[in-house]
């Protein structure tokens, strides 16, 4: 009878150790608790098709979309350390993913996550952020139509990674 109690105690201890390790790994991924329903990393499953909205002409591939109790939440993973305040480009990228998730599902995400090397930030997807994103998209479309879309930096490495490099007359 003592052997059964010893075995039960050992199994319970092992379960606690596995639970603690799983919780630690969950925190390290930067993903919220929930089921991953979309992934652009290829780590979880085959890479998904991009999200697309034809009215806005907007396409995007969030690193992950997680189902948090029935609400889909985009997660953008950055390889850098978190800046003191998120860069506008990171905020607009995440806002675009929130907008695309809403267009695809009809349900507005309450927030999205920016996961940096050292911390994860929950960014509320507010009406103000959406309005600023739509204004930025309109400004970009106008500049594109006018042929006035100019390079906004002096960074050759950034140019080397740009998707427009092959057709850009301003590349470094």
Automatic annotation (TrEMBL):
<keyword id="KW-0547">Nucleotide-binding</keyword>
<dbReference type="GO" id="GO:0004386">
    <property type="term" value="F:helicase activity"/>
</dbReference>
<keyword id="KW-0051">Antiviral defense</keyword>
<dbReference type="GO" id="GO:0051536">
    <property type="term" value="F:iron-sulfur cluster binding"/>
</dbReference>
<dbReference type="GO" id="GO:0004527">
    <property type="term" value="F:exonuclease activity"/>
</dbReference>
<comment type="similarity">
    <text>Belongs to the CRISPR-associated exonuclease Cas4 family.</text>
</comment>
<dbReference type="InterPro" id="IPR011604">
    <property type="entry name" value="PDDEXK-like_dom_sf"/>
</dbReference>
<keyword id="KW-0378">Hydrolase</keyword>
<dbReference type="InterPro" id="IPR051827">
    <property type="entry name" value="Cas4_exonuclease"/>
</dbReference>
<dbReference type="GO" id="GO:0051607">
    <property type="term" value="P:defense response to virus"/>
</dbReference>
<keyword id="KW-0234">DNA repair</keyword>
<keyword id="KW-0479">Metal-binding</keyword>
<keyword id="KW-0227">DNA damage</keyword>
<dbReference type="GO" id="GO:0046872">
    <property type="term" value="F:metal ion binding"/>
</dbReference>
<dbReference type="InterPro" id="IPR013343">
    <property type="entry name" value="CRISPR-assoc_prot_Cas4"/>
</dbReference>
<comment type="function">
    <text>CRISPR (clustered regularly interspaced short palindromic repeat) is an adaptive immune system that provides protection against mobile genetic elements (viruses, transposable elements and conjugative plasmids). CRISPR clusters contain sequences complementary to antecedent mobile elements and target invading nucleic acids. CRISPR clusters are transcribed and processed into CRISPR RNA (crRNA).</text>
</comment>
<dbReference type="GO" id="GO:0006281">
    <property type="term" value="P:DNA repair"/>
</dbReference>
<keyword id="KW-0067">ATP-binding</keyword>
<keyword id="KW-0411">Iron-sulfur</keyword>
<feature type="domain" description="PD-(D/E)XK endonuclease-like">
    <location>
        <begin position="42"/>
        <end position="169"/>
    </location>
</feature>
<keyword id="KW-0464">Manganese</keyword>
<keyword id="KW-0540">Nuclease</keyword>
<keyword id="KW-0269">Exonuclease</keyword>
<keyword id="KW-0408">Iron</keyword>
<keyword id="KW-0347">Helicase</keyword>
<dbReference type="Pfam" id="PF12705">
    <property type="entry name" value="PDDEXK_1"/>
</dbReference>
<dbReference type="InterPro" id="IPR038726">
    <property type="entry name" value="PDDEXK_AddAB-type"/>
</dbReference>
<protein>
    <recommendedName>
        <fullName>CRISPR-associated exonuclease Cas4</fullName>
        <ecNumber>3.1.12.1</ecNumber>
    </recommendedName>
</protein>
